[in-house]
Amino acid sequence: MKERLLLAADESEISGATAERPFSFDGDAAAFQLACEAKRIDFAFLFDPMMAVHTSNVEPLPHQITAVYESMLPRQPLRFVLADDPGAGKTIMAGLYIRELIMRADARRILIVAPGSLVEQWRDELFEKFGLEFSIYSPLLEQATPNSNPFESHHQLVVRLDQLSRNEDLQDKICAAGWDLAVFDEAHKLAAHYFGSKLEKTARFRFAEKLGAVTRHLLLMTATPHNGKEEDFQLFLSLLDSDRFYGKFRDGVHKVDVSDLMRRMVKEELLRFDGTPLFPERKAYTVNYPLSNLEAALYENVTRYVQTEMGKADALEGPRRGSVGFALTTLQRRLASSPEAIYQSLKRRKERLESRLREEQLGIRGRQAIAETLESAPEDDDELNDEEQEQLEEKLVD
Fold first, then answer.
1. CB–CB of 239/208 below 8 Å?
2. What pLDDT digit, counting tens, does each position of 330-350 carry?
3. pTM for this structure?
4. How far is CA 182 from CA 79, 111, 152, 153, 365, in A?
5. What is the domain extent for residue 217?
């Protein structure tokens, strides 16, 4: 029973009370049913431990269910590497995990960091399969944001790895916003290496360190977590736990147990619900075939040319060395593709060298343009689509 002091201004709102039954049951039945259904869905996860599976447009496989509900959800907070073989459906696992966190009110601000060629695929799959609306960060999105920091205004974002790793101002903005969950796709690109006792971290690795420090849940996804060097693998795991994996790995002194931090299943272990293998058995054979005399001569000449020019490339320093090596590797790859492919490459190279020679003799070719071309090789050429890859290879071969 509450009491309130009435003033003269309240007279128009006062009316006489009428005696009614406490429950009249004359309300809007459809609205009542809708409210009950909304509340039922709101608490559904308490009664259905796999609510995300039943409310998503996917039919998950056994290994995807065990990854999400046995390996990932019980860990609070999550610091984990999902390293199943290619084709296992790691995107579906991440989508199920994200949906479960949202339904359990355990995550609201979620960031997906992916290579540039995969950001649209992430956005489309999360929407089509899980009903999650993610935005892709771009300069246009920043211009359309009132406070000029879209990372604060948008709670579900997909960003390009290299775009963020090369821009410290964007890194500061994204880290200041704070995140409940950060997912790195193709996480093997987050590399760091020891050269003697000196530790060299790539820009991608430094960005992952910064972001990992301000997010509660961190999920790294890669099919190749180990490059064969245990010290590099330990550096990679330091993104999850910098104290546990601090310092340089020393064989016989350090022991890396990752059973609580990583899950890896190979294709031979992936099964359907009926127990049948998900992928057919893989059988690899080496098929030898003889080269004709002309093919053998072409192969020897191109290989000799590549070896000679690679030796010259080793004498260079800085970005030019890597760019020339990339170009010469391209020539050898085209040789293995077909005689026509290497013929067209060498033909174009000869024409460009002749044109360059004429321009040098006339003194009209600028050195700056050459330097810019030679230094244009990306850290990972798989960031490019087929057309961009072809254009870059042609420039670097020149």
1. yes
2. 888 888 888 888 888 888 888
3. 0.71
4. 10, 5, 14, 16, 48
5. 44-269
